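Morning, I've got a small favour to ask if you have a moment. I owe you a coffee for this, so here goes:
>
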Amino acid sequence: MAQPPPEKQPAEKQPYQPPPRRNWSAPVGNDATVAARTAFTRAGFTDPTLVLRWNEIAGAETARLARPIKLSSTGTLTLKAEPAAALFLQHETRALCARINGYLGRDAVTKLKFVQGPLVPTPPPPPRRARPTEPAATDPARRFVGPEGLGQALLALARQRTRPTVD
């Protein structure tokens, strides 16, 4: 005959104690990685590659019209699309599923679902920097008289200072 389980005694609730301080700050990236992984997992993306490389996977034109927002465990990928583009993309469902599955290397997406709404434009990539240029002959870094290592460091700093940006 089975005996009933023993009664559990409620544990006393301890007040919250913050972790001990070590008098040094932790890199922000440590917390950002955990937060990003949690957000991707909550949306169903166990592998964030689909979201992060969407432009490469879907192509520039399709990526401009739609973005992935959720992947269900049944293989349904929900895309947020511009209202006028949803119908066009519905006709391209098979080809898009094949491209996604081909990129991921497995049959992860079996069906596409479209949610209509305006897309926030992606920010442009940061401007590329041109190669450093030599400082002008009148630059004070060229006239420095002193230790060789310090003079080289000043010239390198002057090159960085006079470097133009390329748009």
User: Anything to note?
Assistant: The chain has a mean pLDDT of 83. The CA atoms of residues 70 and 90 lie 17 Å apart.
